[in-house]
Amino acid sequence: MSQPTVLCVILNYRTPELTLKAAAAALTAMEGIPGEVVIVDNDSGDGSFAQMSQAATSRGWTAGNRLRVISAGRNGGFGAGMNFGMRAGLSSGGTPAFYYLLNSDAFPEPGAIRHLRDFLIAHPTAGLAGSHVEGEDAKPHCTAFRFPSIAGEFETAARTGLISRALKHAVVPLPQPKGETQVDWTAGASLMLRAQMIEQIGGFDETFFLYFEETDLCLRAAREGWSCWYLPQSRVTHLGSASTGMKRWTRTPGYWFESRRHYFTKNHGHAYAAVATLARAAGQAIWLLRRFLERKPQTDPEHFLRDLFTYSFGKPATPAPARAVSAPLAEDRK
């Protein structure tokens, strides 16, 4: 009996050297697993596509259809790029049993991909499985979460122990799990999806440019009865924010606020979204008072509260049309 196939999708945006490093790690982790790796260049416009294509050929990665480099032709964000890669399918024209999504600055250890795939094989109602992710310093990154909520928005902004203890069941980041744990959602840095689930619920909502797209996908999956799991035995090293520059933000970009607004309005309605924003603002006010009284340093991006209200109550982004993922693109098999 043949083993279920895996299509590993790596999204590049102006990080060709990191992407090639991630691809090398993925190819090693894919040894013994039927499937392929596809690198999607998200319209980098900096020569990334040519550089990665040449490197893949010179390193022998393209032999036997082990790896392809394709161009999305536009930068529609993380979800759109990953959808493009999933629609590309296998080079044979078939659809894999599983999609493995990997950030361009994430490097799976040998066995990481197999652990995710084997878990999903053994648990038919599990639709998604994510890895234990840590930095180069071996410090764990938080990748296990509860779904955002009004209470969670208030707790996140307040950053006050008494409030966090009172709302402990709404705190979005979960304590670091020690074993296999069912979670609401997990980060997309190293995430395996069951193709059957994607065929049922669709791929990423491309209205999200960056952020909240995997949260939305996991919520849609949960509403259709698919569970999401965190697997600590699948281990990945992640640099973090190489493409987005999040660690260097001095002001939160508009697309973060737009994604947040779209998540709440789409999944809970306009009234809920408005109350969630007011809860966030109330929590922020508590934090600002604490900062003043305790003379704590400013750590938030500039004008966060003003930007929160501007994007939350201004004109919303236009939702992207739903796009099927199950049909591979013929031109990507040539």
From TrEMBL:
Coiled-coil ranges per UniProt: none
Gene3D superfamilies assigned to the protein according to its UniProt record, in alphabetical order: Spore Coat Polysaccharide Biosynthesis Protein SpsA, Chain A
Signal peptide from the UniProt entry: none
Superkingdom of origin organism: Bacteria
CDD domains per UniProt: GT_2_like_c
Pfam families: Glyco_tranf_2_3
Keyword annotations: Transferase
InterPro entries tied to this protein: Nucleotide-diphossugar_trans
GO function term, MF aspect, one: transferase activity
Name this polypeptide is given: Glycosyltransferase family 2 protein
Lineage: Bacteria, Pseudomonadati, Pseudomonadota, Alphaproteobacteria, Rhodobacterales
